Amino acid sequence: MIERHRTQPGTRPRTPEEAWRVLSAGNARFMADERAHPHQDVHFRHRLAAKQNPFAIFFGCADSRVAAEIIFDQGLGDLFVVRTAGHVIDPSVLGSLEFGVGVLGCPLIVVLGHDSCGAVKAAEVAVRTGEVPGGFLRDIVERVTPSVLAASRGGRTPTIEDIEREHVERTCDLISERSTLIADRIRSGALGVVGAEYDLADGEAKVVRTIGEIGLDAAG
Q1: Which residues in the chain belong to E strands, given as ranges?
Q2: Is residue 98 part of a domain?
Q3: Which of 76, 99, 104, 111 sits in a 20 to 30 Å window from 126, CA-based?
């Protein structure tokens, strides 16, 4: 039987480790098709109308197959979610993350990447061929390109999977480096960052990077 550990009213996770434990249990339920569907009834919806109190922030790709609340079996009010194609960072993203940390008091940020990411593939093609898309798609590709170059350091020829993992790790680092508020909370132990890669087929979110006091090591 899969652990059905979930948040209950009055038992919101308070530490990065507690928050990740709840999310990990939810992902296990999702993979096993034993979802609890917490916090989705009409009474809880009414209770949330006056105020939100999420316990984790998700910054993930906008891909339609990567919905954090479903993948981690959470409900209304549990997660503060920010999504862009290729989980690329801009000032509005950082402002949203700072709102989740500074105003809502979330103890955990999860960066959620995934396999078969179109933004990563487009950046890899642009670096390899020199052909960059037009319009604002160019901006997305340019923001992912440093991850392609980093994965290619030392003369390596990276796979798309190598680049996707590098991009998740780099995104975690950028968040903790560019926001003073987030960096300060990490140093104090009040906030942690987890970078995870989601497998579209089997549903597993595998940890590849941690920053702060999470109580686990990234998978090698």
Answers
A1: 56-61, 79-84, 108-114, 192-198, 205-211
A2: yes
A3: 111
